[in-house]
Amino acid sequence: MNFALTDEQRMIQESVEQFVNDSYDLESRIALSNSDQGFSSEYWQAMAELGWLALPFEEADGGFGGNQIDVMVLMEQFGRGLVLEPYLASVIMGGGALKRGGSEALKTEMLPGVFDGSRQLAFAYAEQQARFDLDDVTTTARKDGEHFVLNGHKSMVQHAASAHQVVVSARTSGGQVDRGGITLFLVDADAAGISREDFPTVDGLRASEIAFKDVKVGADRVLGEVDQGFAILQAVANDAMLALGAEAVGAMEVLYKDTVAYTQEREQFDHPLSDFQVLQHRMVDMFMEYEQCRSLLYRATLETVQDPAAAQKTIHAMMHAIGKYGIFIGENAVQLHGGMGVTEELRVGHYFKRLLVIDAMFGNADYHLQQFAA
Amino acid sequence: MDIELSAEDLAFRGEVRQFFQDNQMKPGEDYMQWRQDWFGKAREKGGWDVPKWPVEFGGPGWSPTQHYIWEQETARATLPFDLPFGLSMLAPILMAYGNEEQQQRFLPEIRERKVNWCQGYSEPGAGSDLANLKCKAELSEDGSHYIVNGSKIWTTAAHIADWIFCLTRTDDSGIKQQGITFLLFPMKQDGIEVKPIITLGGSHSVNTVHFTDVKVPVENRIGEEGQGWTYAKGLLQHERTGLAGLSRSIVALEGLKEKARSVPRGNGTLMDDPGFRAKVAELEIDLMASEYTELRSLASAAAGAAPGPESSILKLKGTEIQQRIQKLTVEASGIYAPAWGPQQVGFSFSKGGMSGYLASRAYTIYGGASEVQRDVIAKNVLGIKRSSK
């Protein structure tokens, strides 16, 4: 039993930390976020060269053979830097579906580009009526000879505008909320019949609404088996939640530490704010909930590595805590920074926004509490 | 990073389970005899009767992981009752600061559970601000003994104790942490009056104790005169980390769910009520987090590192969790929650539920109130210094 990082993990941690320190000061981040694409192609290329885009893939597929613990180490540092690049969308989600369900031919065709940064993927799992339920799918895929024909609408697809291919969950059989009958497709982003509405999210990242009208997809682009896509969908969502949990923990650490530092500098009533016990106790609560979230992150991640099926409940526990306490820490970091806390000038508000987004992606705190209690 | 127990640790766990199984109380067996035998057999295992004592004083010398396994297993087994005052609170002070004669005189009796001790720390004017204590000890003119006058309060088990270890004031000329002297003396003697305090749960475990001209020989003083605060302070931290009780809470939470499943609600049970269920789930998630916080703290101790910041939150979180379990047990009783007195009415757990809940309100007060704990974390972990303004 130990919680120490391996030498390799420490190297990942140090190199990502270095990258964040060198590249992600607040001013640079705001400029990048305001650019057309919303992130830096140069940074993306650097991540490819450092091997990060190939981290959680089998060595047989040309990857680095990393597991969820390695990704956790990387994502925590991304969380500290509020990194904008589409790592989650392309590597964890799109790549995660491809590595689990792609045929050898498809992986050989697609993965080298994912690793070298020339190919981006996105993951279209959500629909408006589904709220947070992965199994509520109304987008349909009808078999037509050697093709499937997709019709429907996918929502809040992260980084779809810059993606070359999109993994889409569609219903090939069964009722609207049946787990059976869901199939995953790797669809070219520029296929005929696809229309997109692109928009920014509150944290400065990018998302799209995507409509599919008679979009033809080859049967060789099915990931996994027809009708059996839900297991892959759930596994990818779990990896994404673990990655988001790590990112959130990184962001929470910055928020509580910034708040402790700021209240010792800022003076009111002839005292540093940190002299006031009511503020001290609030910061202790922020610190404690951050540590508890870190504990659940470790627990969910280690249990997933050991036995993914047995870890499902712990992932819900972690997401509940990340949602609830992430927002608690974010709100109080803003509160204790006073007027400055509600401005764009200080970084605390930006971290807070990211935590708000994380709570809304794969289910908020209440949703995961219900899933945990089910 | 991994959470696997090593082969040695698994073997140890098996041995502990076997021991508990082999030494259960048999039907008809005399409780006190069984208790005596149990500790004797635990001693033969190589110090299992004093798990936390260091090897040089007869302890087993377990690794942090072994201690964790022991705690987990004891939460599920039935062990003979034990009081912490001599064994876990006084003994470490004797080992660190007592002279050899004192160690030889007191430690064997503590180990054999022959002598009951109580702790004379809190006073009417010294609760969270313990150093403010006033109970006076004056050295006699010939220097052979102290004369103790004053009062102690919240003294658990004073009414059954044979001896007391007591913080007294020998000098009030300096700052309040100075001039405190650590004395040991018998409880059954003239000049000592013990009065019960009945707490909200209706039970008697704490007392007020009054001393009038109690004579204490100087050889019963631990360490130097005036240095008692230093001796007691180190132990307070030790006392706090032992109060989280997470293993027991895991068992208690399972018990709570079972109780709620025995309460009818509509066509199902209380566990089918979404509101109640959500509260249990939230509690369980906080407990799951705390368990890992404890493991993290243990792992850094096993690696020889000083306890990390995570260890500081265990007393706070652990006692809050214990209280929430008690509170939900009362909620589970519904209309029977108010039942009191000797009659058994309502659900099997109704009466015990309310008294357990009321007793649990003390958990966030004793051993350093939660507010004091937060002060300590702000200062020692977050590094916030009070300005001199």
Note the quaternary state here.
heterodimer
Could you say which overall geometry of chain B the principal axes of the C-alpha atoms support?
Answer: globular
Distance between the termini of chain A: 30 Å
> Numbering strands along the chain, what is their spatial order in the largest sheet of chain B?
1-4-5-8
Largest β sheet strand count, sense and barrel closure of chain A = 4 strands, mixed
Average pLDDT score of chain B:
92
Task: Describe the fold and architecture.
The complex is a heterodimer of chains A (374) and B (389). Chain A is α+β, with helices and mostly antiparallel strands and 374 residues long. Chain A has helices spanning 7-23, 26-34, 41-49, 68-81, 87-101, 104-116, 230-265, 277-306, 312-336, 348-361, 365-373, and strands at 121-124, 140-144, 147-158, 165-171, 182-188, 194-200, 206-218, 222-223, 267-268, 271-272. Chain A is built from eleven helices and ten strands. Chain A is globular. The two termini of chain A are 30 Å apart. In chain A, α9 packs antiparallel against α10 (348-361). Chain B is of the alpha+beta class. Chain B is 44% helix and 15% strand. Chain B has a four-stranded mixed β-sheet. In chain B, strands 2-3-7-6 form a four-stranded antiparallel β-sheet, with no helix packed on it. In chain B, β9 (264-265) and β10 form a beta hairpin. Chain B is globular. Chain B starts with 6 loop residues before the first helix and ends in a 9-residue tail after the last helix. The mean pLDDT of chain B is 92. The chains are: A alpha+beta (374), B alpha+beta (389). The interface between A and B is large, with 43 and 47 residues.
Layout of helices and strands:
The complex is a heterodimer of chains A (374) and B (389).
Chain A: H1 7-23, H2 26-34, H3 41-49, H4 68-81, H5 87-101, H6 104-116, E1 121-124, E2 140-144, E3 147-158, E4 165-171, E5 182-188, E6 194-200, E7 206-218, E8 222-223, H7 230-265, E9 267-268, E10 271-272, H8 277-306, H9 312-336, H10 348-361, H11 365-373
Parallel strand pairs in A: 1-4
Antiparallel strand pairs in A: 2-3, 3-7, 4-5, 5-8, 6-7, 9-10
Chain B: H1 7-22, H2 31-44, H3 64-76, H4 84-97, H5 100-111, E1 117-120, E2 136-139, E3 145-153, E4 163-169, E5 180-186, E6 192-198, E7 204-217, E8 221-222, H6 228-241, H7 246-261, E9 264-265, E10 268-269, H8 274-302, H9 314-333, H10 350-360, H11 370-380
Parallel strand pairs in B: 1-4
Antiparallel strand pairs in B: 2-3, 3-7, 4-5, 5-8, 6-7, 9-10
